[in-house]
Each structure stands twice: as C-alpha cells, then as structure tokens.
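In this supplementary section we document a worked example of the pipeline. Step one takes a protein sequence of length 235 as its only input; no multiple sequence alignment statistics are reported here. Step two produces a three-dimensional model, which step three serialises into structure tokens for compact storage. The input and output of this example are shown verbatim.
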Amino acid sequence: MFIIIDGIDGSGKSTILDSWANELNTKGKKVFHLKKYWQKHLAHPTLEELMDYDVIISAEPTHAWVGKAIREEMIQKGNDYAMEDIASAYALDRLILYKRLLNPLRDAGKIILQDRSVSTSLCYQPLASDTISMEDIASLNGNVFALKHAPDHLVIADVDPEIAMTRLSGRIEKDDNAIFEKETFLKKAQAQFLDKTFQSYFTKQGTHIHVLDCSPKLAIMKEQGNDLLHTLLAS
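The serialised model returned by step three reads:
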C-alpha cells in the first residue's frame, strides 16, 4: 500500500508520519527511513538493501542527486531560480524516486508512507507563481508519471493556518526561501488542498482522499492519526 500525507507547513504531517513509523515498529514491522539513508550517503539505496523491510518511510524532495541540488541550491535564500525551473527539478527528482524505488517497492508488496509528493507541487507551485497553472504542473513528465502511479490513499493534514503559524514560529531559522511559511500563503494552500478540483487529479486515478484533523494537541493528533492508519491498512 502506498500512502501519502500532505498539508500546509506546520500542519503536523511530519509528526503524524513519525507516529505511524513508531506504531508499525511496535507492531513488529521492520521500518526503513529513506531520509536517514539519503542524508548519510547522498544517494538512493539499492532495492536489494530494502527488501528485508516491511515499511518504507519516504519524503520529497529527496536528499539525493536532484533532490540535494533542490535543497542546497535552488531554494536557498538569495538565489533567483524561476519557479518553472524549480518545478521541473522537483518533477525530475520525483521521476527518479518513483522509477528507482517506489514503483518496484509497491510491486514487491511493501507499505510505503511518504511525506509530500506531486500533491505538494500541484498545490504550492501554482500559488507561488503568476505564470504557472495546475495543468502546467501536472503536464511535467515526472508529475505525469507520479499521477499515473498515484497513491492508494492521500491523507490531508488539515489545520487552521493560525495554529500552523504558531507551530512554525518554534522552528529554528532555515536557510531556504520561506515563502510557504507566510500566513496568507498558508490560507490559500489550505483551501487548495481541500478543493475538489485539486483532489480530482488523484480521485480520477483511484486514490482515496482522507482529511485528518491535526488541530488537537499532540497526543490526541497522534492517536487519531494512528487510528486512521490502521483503518487504511485494514482496508
């Protein structure tokens, strides 16, 4: 099963994903965190390295190859790459990830839980540019491929942007362009994630959409997230 969790910055999606990983680990599942591997090796693992694991935790952009260039060059403060170039880089990073790992892992029967994907690009990138539409983003080769191999479930972490901003205020200052962490932008993005036109890019591929309330306090949010995970895996 392939499950993507997405939502605005500060929504709690990364917290939910970590909770899912811990929950499955306590249930006896062997969990592999791609992010830790990427950060150590700056490359993707081979499929052979992953076959002994039951659950693969993934994220986008990656920290390998194109993903590394996105993080360390293209979205750094002071750099002026056009959104069209950034969108193309994200799509290429995604294409490599899907072809090299995600699709073969799905074929091998693994559970894949991922933080962000083409869903983020479809939501964020048109809002960040006056010259790009969702149709433009969806037409990029890597995004076409990702939508063709859409997840079984897309979980949208839903939260009031004001709560998200409070959570973001506690983060250590980052070096990338933080245009996605402004309240005005977050309000637009939240509406986009919940919009039926946006969701139709996935539902028409057979993806089931779930909206998870991530406004409650941490313990309650994790409990509700774990309950949803068990429901999805049982289905």
